[in-house]
């Protein structure tokens, strides 16, 4: 992918041509003269969006926003780096008050759940529940998380943020922090929420690494998954490709920011790892030169992998999309500098009747500065996600395993 520096004079890329290593395997095709899908259904989307997936025809009626063109906010939305950085630093942060609950896991680890304060008293016990999984080093304090939370809450949903180990100032009681492939914590959280609200349907949304964790859970634990639907946004899918991409050109700025967040979190809990110094490279964890170096020193050791390459290869959620058995919406940006579009498993999404993929022409990473709330408000994706989830809730869509 191109690695040109930030530029206020960059021209918006074509919205009809997407870059992939493989040809796009679209389920829905449209032209100026055609207004039906390949199955003859009335069209529900605009040609500026690429839509595919085995479940696309089934889920398209859920959306009212997809018939509108995707219009990135002028200048900001025309450059993927500018959009990514703008969203990270200048997007508004809604005011949300949380009530924290800490769960103890079987390995003596600790998971922090942040529930919206007061919902346990004001909402019925059967209100739909949305579990949010933030990205790498992210948590309940992040703007994109809070915007989605506010949107879901306005529809009467009960929302809880699943902060991975060590994130959002959560306590750390074992030498293991956030990882891309450890699904035991997700199982624990979903089981806990299910037992606490047995009458409620439960859904989940994950961003970036949180999206990868969520899809890994859906695929690996499909035989026991009790979620009724899920959404994955800007998922890196293939961590081998994402790792290579992160160290190219201007993308180094994101690698620097992410490794800084990882090392700061690790520094707070380094004493837990120092007791096992022969296994962990504590000094490299405190001062990593790249995210890859941190994962080599700390993350892959905590999971028992022999190398960071083995960790990345075995943590790719693209390998398990074919096993997903509940409705799954994936939203990617064609110009994402951190989750490259060529890592998206097009063929597996197309072959799975439970999956649908939407690719926007712009969006950057966690950006999507477009729509009525741009540039400072909620990302364009929030309305799309809520429409999908509301459709599943109203139709009680929980397909049997196929």
TrEMBL record:
Q: Which InterPro entries match?
A: AB_hydrolase_1 (IPR000073), AB_hydrolase_4_sf (IPR050960), AB_hydrolase_fold (IPR029058), ABHD4 (IPR012020)
| Source organism superkingdom | Eukaryota
The cross-references to Pfam families, in alphabetical order and at most eight, read: Abhydrolase_1 (PF00561)
Q: Where is this region: Disordered?
A: 1-22
All copies of domain AB hydrolase-1, residue ranges = 128-366
Q: What is the name of this protein?
A: Embryogenesis-associated protein EMB8-like
Instruction: Give GO MF terms, alphabetically.
Output: monoacylglycerol lipase activity; short-chain carboxylesterase activity
The organism encoding this protein is Gossypium australe
Q: Which residues form the active site?
A: 208 (charge relay system), 336 (charge relay system), 365 (charge relay system)
For bias type Low complexity, the affected ranges are: 1-14
Question: What family name appears in the similarity comment?
Answer: Belongs to the AB hydrolase superfamily. AB hydrolase 4 family.
> Which PANTHER family does its entry note?
ABHYDROLASE DOMAIN-CONTAINING PROTEIN, EMBRYOGENESIS-ASSOCIATED PROTEIN EMB8-LIKE
